[in-house]
Predict the structure.
Amino acid sequence: TAPHAILLADTPKETPMTLTIGVDVGGTKIAAGLVDADGTILTTLRRPTPAQEVDAVVDVIADAVAELAAGRDARDAGGVEAVGIGAAGFVDAARSTVIFAPNLAWRDEPLAATVSERTGLPVVVENDANAAAWGEFRFGAARDAHSSLVITVGTGIGGGIVLDDRLVRGSHGFAAEIGHINIKPGGRRCGCGLRGCWERYGSGSALVHEARELATVSPVQGAKLLKLAGGDPGGIRRYQARFLRPVPVAATTGVQVRVQATVTAVLPAPEVEVNLTVSCQGHKVLGRAKAIVAL
């Protein structure tokens, strides 16, 4: 493997830090939190994502950072040291520019420099699923593991891999984009420009698509959804789609086999356990889909 193919994350597990601010930028919401050296989240806030307005997204991020940095928790601790942004998109190897975001309007967006200029703080940008994988490795479910795979399910589907205590980013920073694996040739158009990507069948936005389709094709089965949407299938939103009967994260058995085969390919280990839980507005939507892949 080339030396730059797998990059060691900058901060080992035992290195202490002062307060930092983490910002998660997704296709529907921006969530930010003030975090201490032990990974404890002290304060949080959430804002809707103006997904089609580049400058407006930066405004929301900068305002969220300013609000958290001005809060009592930050002042009592002596201030904030840095900002980390998890972006739902392809982030370059320098962890500064969002090259492309399927569900946002970012194209070659110099996000780190822009937010740093607005906030006066050092900023690092990372793919949101990579950030989640590193967070679980440092402080969460994978803190006792040396290798792990995280699959994130929201507006889209993302993946992050930690292998032998190192975050796998790939030679260009685009590794583990498993949501854009083709599971249905010629299928639904994806925001990345391709057709049949996994996230078009197993994400939160895909759930809304299924709910609207059900309410249109079968008004009897979709009666509750239609009632919540005021009689218009197009009015169904994600928090209403939770009333759809539970369905597998992958739409068919064949898709599930492909997903398991993909997990096998990207994370070689004696046993891989994949847990997916989707929640919208705090409510569990698809339940928990668990697959054990024995190699």
